[in-house]
Write a structure and sequence with these properties.
- Helices cover 65% and strands 12% of the residues.
- By secondary structure, the protein is an alpha+beta fold.
- The protein has 2 domains: 115 residues; 208 residues, Heat Shock Protein 90, CATH 3.30.565.10.
- The longest helix is centred in the middle third of the chain and has 74 residues.
- The protein is rod-shaped, with a radius of gyration of 40 Å.
- GO terms for molecular function: phosphorelay sensor kinase activity.
Length: 364
């Protein structure tokens, strides 16, 4: 099958070359004769110059240009070009001599005033060579550009697939980390046979539904993320009871606002995991708001003076930062501070709607 296709392509190329040389022959017949000669005589006379024209042209487009000009071996290209012109000039003179002998029979008359001038004949032949070489250079340049574009697209496609794989891997890392802490809380309640354990299991089931099913979607509603943050806080309130002081503020969130799932919840989980106050109470403040399509998320939790928490450390925060890099690039700002009394996280995502459209179509 491949050989048949190759033969077909070769036949097509051969046909195109034959047609082009017929056009060149007609061009020579028109240029070399002006008046007084019939078309057959002009055609025969011009045909004598066709072989040297073809040989010179093919020498440039199949040897000199690809082997010396394109690889930027300019000195050798110049030297071999001069050799080629000298050799072709000799054959032009010989072709002109035999053409005059056969066509004119060495009878000099006024039939071919232009053809008798070898300078015009040579210029015409080299004009064809130059045009063919220029066309070949353009073709090579176009092929090179197309090849570079194809290579660039393949590289971008490979990078996109790697980003997708990395993104899915980071999401899988976050889920077990979050579930481990939540199940740990319920386990503590079950040991003490607390009557609130069934309610906590029900709330956890809602979180499991969110984690196992909703997070498979590229985007979820911001209000859904907020609702599940509320469920998580309710679970933690039962665990901490009087040892927890928490503020959770969010404004009116439009239903059409979306963001990637599990983007904010791990920050909340992290504040409960590492937070602790000097007076034995954990104080947490959470604020979510939208300003001109900019999402602003702020969370502050108290820590002990002896706490060794460092901003940006831990699997959870590292994964979230990496997810933000993949999803939003330079269109987000994440500040994490530790002032020895509180641990602060401020996340800003600008052009939220535009970024999410890009995420939906390109990354996820």
């Amino acid at each position: 099958m491949k050989s048949v296709k190759t033969i077909s392509e070769l036949g097509k190329r051969l046909f195109i070359h034959i047609v082009l040389w017929i056009i060149v022959l007609l061009f020579f017949s028109f240029f070399f004769g002006i008046e007084g000669a019939d078309f057959r005589t002009l055609l025969i006379f011009s045909a004598f110059f066709l072989p040297v024209t073809a040989a010179t042209t093919y020498a440039f487009i199949y040897n000199l240009i690809p082997n010396y000009l394109l690889p930027k071996r300019y000195l050798k290209f110049g030297i071999y070009s001069v050799y080629t012109f000298i050799i072709s000039a000799v054959f032009i003179i010989l072709s002109a001599f035999y053409a005059l002998v056969i066509v004119l029979g060495l009878e000099l008359n006024d039939q071919f005033p232009v053809s008798k001038n070898l300078f015009y004949i040579t210029i015409t032949i080299y004009l064809v060579v130059v045009i063919a070489s220029a066309f070949n250079l353009l073709k090579n340049n176009y092929a090179s550009v197309a090849k570079n574009e194809e290579l660039k697209n393949r590289i971008l496609e490979a990078q996109l697939k790697l980003k997708e794989q990395e993104f899915q891997y980071l999401k899988m890392q976050i889920h077990p980390h979050f579930l481990f802490n939540t199940l740990n809380t319920i386990y503590g309640f079950s040991l003490s046979k607390n009557e609130k354990t069934p309610e906590m299991i029900l709330q956890l089931s809602d979180l499991l539904d969110y984690i196992l099913y909703q997070t498979k979607k590229p985007l979820v509603k911001l209000e859904d993320e907020i609702n599940h943050i509320g469920n998580y806080i309710a679970l933690e309130k039962k665990r901490f009871q009087d040892a927890l002081e928490i503020e959770f503020n969010y404004g009116n969130i439009p239903a059409a606002v979306y963001l990637p799932p599990m983007l904010l919840l791990p920050f909340v989980e992290n504040s409960f995991k590492h937070g602790k106050g000097n007076d034995g109470k954990l104080k947490i403040s959470i604020c979510i708001k939208l300003e001109a399509e900019k999402l602003i998320f702020k969370i502050v939790n108290s820590i002990e003076n002896s706490s060794e928490i460092s901003p940006g450390k831990g699997i959870g925060l590292q994964n979230i930062k990496r997810r933000l890099d993949i999803l939003y690039g330079d269109d987000y700002q994440l500040n994490i501070e530790n002032d020895k009394e509180s641990f602060r996280v401020l996340l800003k995502i600008k052009n939220l709607g535009e970024n999410l459209r890009d995420i939906d179509s390109e990354i996820i």
